[in-house]
Specification:
Layout lengths: L5 E5 L5 H14 L6 H8 L1 H6 L4 E7 L2 E10 L5 E8 L8 H16 L3 E2 L8 H9 L15
Length: about 150
């Protein structure tokens, strides 16, 4: 499927079930347990991400949501990329890079810095995506992109 068939959109309440399903699938695929802090964010993206000043983006293909990414507002005024995942059926199309680029594009308007999620040290695919968007965060030390 061509890149033009995908579009990146902002959060709407209709995305909540897709948000939860995509992230739960990614955690299960990676062999990660769903921890209490994950459950909180997955069950309440509005309260945990959007209300504190973060953003959530989704990748849509036709009427299906095939990816997502959050920018979580940090105490220091910066933002951390979190919960970035692409459904297996849509991988290999550069969608993580597009999500990362879209996320970074809004930061100058917010006067904020970009950082990679601390969980990136554990997930090679996420490291690749963060590296490809130019993230050089201190938090990426120990991150091992896969080839």
């Amino acid at each position: 499927m061509s890149e033009q068939a995908f579009r990146i959109v902002g959060f709407s309440p209709s995305h909540v079930a897709d948000w939860r399903a995509l992230n739960e699938a990614w955690l299960a695929e990676g062999g990660f347990a769903i921890e209490a802090k994950d459950r909180k964010v997955l069950d309440d993206p509005q309260g945990q991400i959007l209300t504190p000043g973060g953003r959530i983006f989704f990748v849509e293909r036709d009427s299906d949501v095939v990816g997502c990414c959050a920018l979580m507002a940090m105490d220091d005024g910066g933002f951390e990329v979190a919960k970035m995942t692409i459904a297996p059926s849509a991988r290999g199309q550069g969608l993580s890079r597009r999500l990362g680029s879209r996320s970074q594009a809004i930061l100058p308007a917010k006067g904020a810095a970009f950082s990679a999620a601390s969980s990136l040290r554990k997930a090679g695919e996420a490291c690749n995506a963060a590296s490809s968007t130019g993230s050089t965060s201190e938090k990426m030390r120990g991150c091992r992109p896969i080839s």
